[in-house]
Amino acid sequence: MNDSSWGSPPGAGPHAGYWGPTDQGPVQGAAPAGPAYDAPEAQQTRPMPIVPDVPAYGGDQDDDRGAARLSGPLYRDDTFRDATFRDETTSAQPRAAAPQTQNPEPMPDAPQPASAPQKKSAGRDLSAAIGVGVGLGVVIVASLFVVKAVFVGVIAVAVVVGLWELTSRLEERKGIKAPLVPLAVGGAAMVVAGYVREAEGAWVAMALTALAVLVWRMTEPPEGYLKDVTAGVFAAFYVPFLATFVAMMLTADDGPQRVLTFLLLTVVSDTGAYAVGWRFGKHKLAPRISPGKTREGLLGAVSFAMVAGALCMQFLIDDGTWWQGLLLGLAVAASATLGDLGESMIKRDLGIKDMGTLLPGHGGIMDRLDSLLPTAPVVWLLLVLFVGSG
Questions:
Q1: pTM of the full structure
Q2: 363 burial class (0-12, 13-18, 19+ CB within 10 angstroms)?
């Protein structure tokens, strides 16, 4: 609106400068809207009608489906301002009612409907997870107590599949081409060497696998050589070398009982963390790494693992005592949690949820080895310190 519209037109009468009401009347708290009777052809003016404080419902000013209400802000947007302060060229004829919209925009101060409370979800298919877990447990226990060499083969197969998942995700998400062939061959050989020659054999096989990775990658262009071989050496240490300590446990006279204790404590620790954290978890443990883990879940893992450790050391391990089991359970809960966080850090860096889809309800093999791998050397070392190498 320009400044000339606020003055008196030339030759105006005694009511110069007065504007009559529009068909709506003035808006509360604002100047009268639009020149309804200041046109040159207007012969006389009429007295301003008395407007009630609250317009009748249904008018343009109180329509809660598109116009401003008295309880809301006076000027909602440019459309409303344009409709209130019309240009002086607007016709004096009454305006038609504004069309009503079918899906109105809610007023800013209108109360929003409360959302329905959401139930906690486990995040996975529990029936499939339980079924796969029971099946794996049967295979492991059967091979463990029937023929030790069969269980060593199970470890080697898990290592090769885990290496395949890890190297595949590295190439897909980061473009890192860690050579799988020397890793798979060296990883399987590492597990067998640990079972046959124990720690000495495991270290020698690890060194030869790293050397094979360096040489194998030389057959390709040099671009990316450093990151590829670095990832390859990391994969060789992370998966097969740590898994070798499980094969080394098996060499003792009570080897199957030691491996069973290792597996039971790790599973019980994970189960305690999940059960307590899902039910009572409120305080995040490491939100930037794994938002689902809580401090309450960690306490559950420690409690469950210590009780299970005391029982296992007392009744499964030769010459073991319950207090040693308490310490063993505490160490397992710590190493299993750190292993889980470490794998979560890798997956977060890669931008994935699971390493694979081989195991329904669990993800991939690496998603089940995340807690087991770093726990294996801890259990092996503590058992050797408590009861000897057997």
A1: 0.68
A2: buried
